[in-house]
Design brief:
The protein has helices at residues 28-40, 94-110, 140-145, 165-175, 196-210, 219-237; strands spanning 4-7, 17-21, 43-49, 58-59, 65-66, 70-77, 80-87, 115-124, 133-137, 151-152, 180-188, 254-255. The chain is an alpha/beta fold and 257 residues long. It has a single domain (4-238, 250-255), classed as Rossmann fold (3-Layer(aba) Sandwich), CATH 3.40.50. The strands form two sheets. Strands 1, 2, 3, 6, 7, 8, 9, 10, 11 and 12 form a ten-stranded mixed beta sheet that branches. Strands 4-5 form a two-stranded antiparallel ribbon. Strand 9 (133-137), helix 3 (140-145) and strand 10 (151-152) form a beta-alpha-beta unit. The longest helix has 19 residues, at 219-237. The radius of gyration is 17 Å and the shape is globular. The protein starts with a strand and ends with a strand.
Length: 257
């Protein structure tokens, strides 16, 4: 077994959009996608299992162990099938990341998926008071489609390599002619910082483009719960972060997942 998709609930999926938010700098993507899943009450349809996940477990508030998980959720909203890829971790090394992304693309093509959105953070040396959001893609048309106020695609020279699923999935999707875009929000580049304000800026874009009618009045409460759980898990699994590079903030803007 490399990566196994275990079906939990059978639903009719047709031409979906996939939105991806896994842990990374500021956990921007995870915070955003977890909030959407909770707010829309999306249905969990697949668990992803692998021997290529970190060899560790979390200890929860009930003093019981939990395996790290990556899951796929489904929600039909405004006559559009939406899939959400969420989880506690990312694949632990380069080859696992490529294998994982190709497995997700195989799954996505099975349902005639139309486009992919990944979400991540741009690590800064200081906490941004008004986080800016950038985008990059594998197709110019999808950038035009997602034009939004305060969203810039003038990203060349702003970020370094986009490491992890956030970047690799977009790149590999391009080889299969699947239009894909990455939304990257500025956040503080400390490993234990949670970019809640940054996630909010990306949520505004997704809410507008998909007419999700997200209840932003609940955001602070729900994010507080997410933050509580995330902080515990970050401490437990910090040694398995996706990059081995020094992630301490510097004066240079950098992007890692």
């Amino acid at each position: 077994m490399v990566f196994l998709l275990k079906e939990l609930n059978k639903v009719n999926i047709n031409k979906p959009v996939l939105i991806v938010g896994l842990p990374g700098i500021g956990n921007v993507g995870k915070i955003a996608v977890d909030f959407i899943i909770d707010n829309l009450k999306a249905q969990k349809i697949f668990d992803i299992e692998s021997y290529n996940f970190p060899h560790a477990v979390f200890v929860n508030e009930k003093n019981m162990v939990e395996l790290p998980t990556i899951e796929i959720y489904y929600k039909r909203a405004n006559n559009k099938d939406l899939l959400f890829l969420a989880g506690d971790i990312q694949p632990i090394d380069e080859s696992s990341c490529y294998e994982f992304c190709n497995k997700i693309l195989d799954f996505f093509e099975k349902y005639n998926g139309t486009e992919i959105i990944t979400i991540g953070g741009i690590g800064l040396s200081e906490m941004p008071s008004d986080p800016r959001v950038y985008c990059t893609a594998n197709d110019k048309k999808i950038i035009e489609k997602y034009k939004f106020k305060n969203l810039s695609n003038d990203i060349y020279g702003i970020v370094g390599p986009i490491i992890g699923v956030t970047g690799v999935l977009v790149g590999l999707a391009g080889k299969r002619n699947i239009p894909s875009i990455a939304f990257l929000a500025e956040t503080y580049g400390h490993p234990n910082y949670l970019g809640i304000k940054s996630a909010r800026e990306i949520l505004k874009i997704l809410d507008s483009k998909f007419n999700l009618n997200l209840n932003f009045t609940e955001l602070n409460k729900e994010v507080t719960d997410i933050e509580k759980n995330l902080r515990k898990k970050i401490k437990q699994i910090d040694q398995f972060r996706i990059t081995k590079a020094d992630e301490r903030p510097t004066s240079k803007i950098n992007y890692i997942g």
